[in-house]
């Protein structure tokens, strides 16, 4: 049972790059429910690790593992999709967050696909509550990019560089760190209008900042987490990559569909 819950845990190559027709799952609740069973979204944590607030979303337990009532997952996914669609349609900005090893690749993939911001490396304390300081670091990152472009032009023209090689290497190292941590929000000039979080318990600092700023939130919440920590909790397995890929994909599609509808008008 534990193996089924964590099927393909941490193996990015195991998530097949298949093009799913999310619309058909949204139209047919039975088909969506069946797909959730297929990807193992209904497998919760061990019963000893549960959060009592998740009781309404738990169907039963088997072999020491809580089984999530996937009917609630279906309802939550459709609600989250619609909230995302509304944000995209009105031109709002969405931030996807997960630094969990098994979710980073998936978050980045879907955020880039739908044109949203994302954080997949270590969450910097104050990333939202002290955004002014973070934004200064983003500006610094962009300044480095412009500088490196100018230096490359000077090299091609055979000009003498204004900085010694050692200093340029030092700047490249600093730029690499900034890009790794802030690359997913390089064009985020102001706070997001909506935040999507995988496992609010794991991303407790990010979740706390979102709450403090009253930013609307959606989250994939497993049986060991507090569903009230986000505005729209999606009860589901937060470790199986198949489960994460499908749920994140279908919810993110809402944002893209909203943007397409806005552009068509």
Topology (elements, then pairings):
Elements: H1 2-5, H2 22-27, H3 29-38, E1 43-46, E2 58-62, E3 65-68, H4 70-89, E4 94-97, H5 101-114, E5 117-119, H6 131-156, H7 165-182, E6 194-198, H8 204-212, E7 217-221, E8 232-235, H9 241-264
Helix pairs in contact: 3-4, 4-9, 5-9, 6-7
**Regions with little confidence, pLDDT below 50 for 5+ residues:** 10-14
Strand elements, count: 8
Shape: elongated
Name given to the CATH homologous superfamily of the largest domain: Glucose-6-phosphate isomerase like protein, domain 1
Q: What's the alpha carbon Rg, rounded to whole Å? A: 21 Å
Q: In angstroms, what separates the terminal alpha carbons? A: 49 Å
Per the CATH scheme, the topology name of the largest domain is Rossmann fold
Estimate the strand proportion. Answer: 5-15%
Q: How are the strands of the biggest sheet laid out side by side? A: 5-4-6-7-8
Question: Would you kindly provide a written description of the structure presented here, covering whatever features stand out?
Answer:
This protein has helices at 2-5, 22-27, 29-38, 70-89, 101-114, 131-156, 165-182, 204-212, 241-264; strands at residues 43-46, 58-62, 65-68, 94-97, 117-119, 194-198, 217-221, 232-235. It has 265 residues and is α/β, with parallel strands linked by helices. The chain has two domains: 29-124 and 191-264, Rossmann fold; 131-184. The strands form two sheets. Strands 5-4-6-7-8 form a five-stranded parallel sheet, sandwiched between helices. Helix 3 packs across helix 4. The longest helix is centred in the middle third of the chain and has 26 residues, at 131-156. The radius of gyration is 21 Å and the shape is elongated.
